[in-house]
Write a structure and sequence with these properties.
Helix content is 68%, strand content 5%. The chain is mainly α and 221 residues long.
C-alpha cells in the first residue's frame, strides 16, 4: 500500500508526498532472487557443508545480515532455494495448487492424464533434483538439514496423496490410494531421476519418456 508523508515545502507550505512501495518490493524480490541463484551455484559447485553464508552474500552482492534476515540460517537458505527453483517463481502458492498441476484432472483419457502428471514431475526434477540429492546427503551430518529433509518428505507425501485423488480414475483398485501415492512419489522422485539422468547418463527426454511409461504400466488397470 502507499503511505503519505506530510512535510513542509521550501516555501513553508505543507505538502503530501506519496511513496510507492512497488519499487522497494521489486528490489527485495531481485535481491532474494540473487541470493537464491548464488546459493544454488555454490551448494552444487562446492557442497552444502563447505558453503558459508558469507560466501553466498558475497556472490549475491548483499550483506550476510540480509541473508540471515531473509532465510534464518543455511538450512533455511536451502529451503528457500528449493522453494523458489522448484516453483520457478516467488508466488506464494503451493506447486500442487497451481493451475498447471491441477489441469491433469480435467483430462478424460486415463493414460494421457497420468502421462501429463509424470511430465510435470520430470520438469520439477530437472530444476531441483540435484539440490534435493544434496539435501539428502547434507542431512546425514547436519541436524538442521535433517529436520528440513523430514519436513520436505512429509510435504511430498501429502502432495502425492492430493495428486492421486485428482488422478484416481482408472487406477488399480488392488493398490489403494495410499500405496498408489507412495508409488507416484518414489517413481517420480529425485532419487530415481538422479540415478538415471546423472549417474546413468540418460537424457532428460529419455528419463521423461521412461517415467511416463512406468507410471502407466504400474498403476493403470
Amino acid at each position: 500500500m502507499n503511505r503519505t508523508d506530510s512535510r513542509e515545502s521550501e516555501h513553508g507550505v505543507s505538502t503530501t508526498r506519496r511513496y510507492d512501495n512497488s519499487a522497494r518490493q521489486e528490489d527485495a524480490r531481485s535481491r532474494r532472487a540473487a541470493i537464491v541463484a548464488a546459493a544454488a551455484r555454490l551448494f552444487l559447485d562446492d557442497g552444502y557443508a563447505e558453503t558459508t553464508i558469507a560466501q553466498v552474500a558475497r556472490e549475491a552482492g548483499v550483506s550476510p545480515q540480509l541473508v540471515y534476515a531473509s532465510f534464518g540460517n543455511k538450512a533455511g537458505l536451502l529451503a528457500g532455494v528449493l522453494d523458489l527453483m522448484g516453483a520457478g517463481d516467488d508466488q506464494q502458492v503451493l506447486i500442487r495448487d497451481r493451475p498447471e498441476f491441477m489441469a491433469p484432472s480435467e483430462i478424460s483419457d486415463d493414460r494421457e492424464r497420468l502421462r501429463t502428471f509424470a511430465r510435470m514431475a520430470a520438469e520439477v526434477n530437472a530444476r531441483v533434483g540435484a539440490l534435493q540429492v544434496l539435501l539428502d546427503r547434507a542431512a546425514v551430518g547436519d541436524p538442521a538439514a535433517a529436520e528440513l529433509r523430514e519436513r520436505m518428505l512429509a510435504a511430498m507425501r501429502e502432495d502425492h496423496q492430493v495428486y492421486v485423488n485428482r488422478l484416481a480414475a482408472g487406477m488399480r483398485p488392488d493398490l489403494g490410494p495410499e500405496r498408489v501415492a507412495e508409488v507416484t512419489r518414489v517413481v517420480t522422485g529425485h532419487q530415481v531421476w538422479h540415478g538415471l539422468v546423472v549417474d546413468g547418463g540418460w537424457s532428460q527426454e529419455q528419463y521423461t519418456d521412461w517415467v511416463c511409461d512406468a507410471l502407466v504400466r504400474l498403476l493403470l488397470d
